[in-house]
Amino acid sequence: MVKEGGATISGGALGVDAVAHRVTLSQEAVTVAVMAGSLDNLYPSGNWQLFDEISHTGLLLSEMAPGSKPTRWRFLQRNRLIAALSEAVVVTEAGWRSGSINTASHANVLNRRVFAVPGPINSPSSAGCNRLIRDQLAELLLDAADLPLELGWREPSIPDQSSLGSLELRALDALTTREQPFETIAIASGLSRAELTLALGGLQIAQLALRGEGNGWLRTH
């Protein structure tokens, strides 16, 4: 995602937060850490080296006055800033009740897009993600590489047609982006049932055609 020009915004905590910041720094991209306490009370202290790196190439941010220590309610309060600063919020792991779920809740109120990575149904660390997806409070995310496309940062790629045979090209020309019955496609392409079956199989492998809900066929682009 950061290779597309995006930045990461997180809370600087141990675990997933720290990983997100470090990976972003390794890509020489911008990362922002939103603190629960003031900038003279950085927490956790074990991440002081990480915070130092972020301060040179990214941003350490706090709305707390100097001398303010991080408290439980301040962690929840700063989550609204993470949501407000973000174009989208991604929840990779979360228990049934967690700070990440709180951030996702703020994001929904602010009309930010929320994505969640699903996990095993018997895993407590995935319970929050699965609940967000089930309750339609988050979109399912399986691969971080999908984010730039989902957010409109990148146009969808068009599959290569250079390796298609003559039967597949004739079938492709007969297809539209609206589902059509097999027989209609056969008439439009001038192919026999056997030829069209073979051609559609090739187009499906090439990701140029797919079978519709009504058992017909349509092209993907």
Automatic annotation (TrEMBL):
Single biological process term from Gene Ontology? DNA-mediated transformation
Coiled-coil annotated spans = none
- Boundaries of every Smf/DprA SLOG domain copy: 3-147
Question: What's this protein's family per the entry?
Answer: Belongs to the DprA/Smf family.
What is the name of the protein in this document? Unannotated protein
